[in-house]
Design brief:
This protein has 201 residues and is α/β, with parallel strands linked by helices. It is built from seven helices and six strands; from the N terminus they run βαβαβαβαβααβα. It has a four-stranded mixed beta sheet with strand order 3-5-4-6, with helices on both faces. It has a two-stranded parallel sheet with strand order 1-2. Strand 1, helix 1 and strand 2 form a beta-alpha-beta unit.
Length: 201
């Protein structure tokens, strides 16, 4: 297990040092400053590939995702699916965030033709090949488009229903400004994908 501490200013680093001393298979990476989720994932993917992982999983540390489902997702990857996303069937967030997420997923499907209903889910399992392919794209807020990048790369996608739990710690990074930034990013990426398809044709 690899834990990336994205510049926490609380006691996270201290807790991770204690856990690392107790569990030899736990590796921690502490970033000196908050770099954002995409950058943290990039560092984590690189570390997993360096350790010759066959399957790379990602899960947020806020406790909302139940790790029980990871093994089921891993089995799907081992049978040949490139990327498996945990589709949250009982979103625990408040109504505004659920509506914004639903709108985002509809836009992704319409603008990029990427199959799936929960692209922004932070719980995913993928082959090492997919993780390596994704690394150059992980910057800014583009972790939201992992399934889009994998689809563009020609990898098979699937979703697995998972149970979403109420947040037990931390604060959500959701805000109206992120919706605007995400929409602009999606427009840029959609034009990029369309250009690439025309070039290949």
């Amino acid at each position: 297990m690899i834990i990336v501490d994205d510049g926490s200013t609380d006691t996270t680093g201290e807790v991770l040092r204690e856990l690392s001393a107790r569990y030899k298979n736990l590796h921690t990476i502490c970033l000196q400053a908050n770099k954002g989720k995409a950058a943290a994932l990039r560092v984590g993917f690189e570390a997993a590939i360096e350790r010759q992982a066959d399957v790379v999983c990602m899960i947020d540390a806020d406790g909302q995702d139940n790790p029980y489902f990871l093994n089921l997702m891993i089995q799907r990857v081992l049978t040949g699916t490139g990327l498996v996303t945990g589709r949250r069937v009982n979103r625990a967030e408040k109504l505004p965030k659920r509506l914004a997420s639903k709108m985002f997923n509809v836009l992704v499907r319409l603008m990029t033709s990427t199959p799936g209903k929960d692209h922004n889910s932070g719980m995913k399992a993928m082959s090492a090949d997919v993780a390596a392919f994704l690394i150059p794209f992980l910057e800014g807020d583009r972790h939201r488009y992992i399934s889009v990048f994998a689809h563009w790369g020609g990898f098979a996608l699937a979703e697995r229903s998972v149970i979403n739990r109420p947040r037990i710690s931390g604060r959500t990074k959701y805000s109206s400004s992120r919706i605007i930034v995400g929409t602009v990013d999606l427009l840029t990426l959609s034009r990029f994908f369309k250009t690439r398809r025309l070039t290949h044709e």
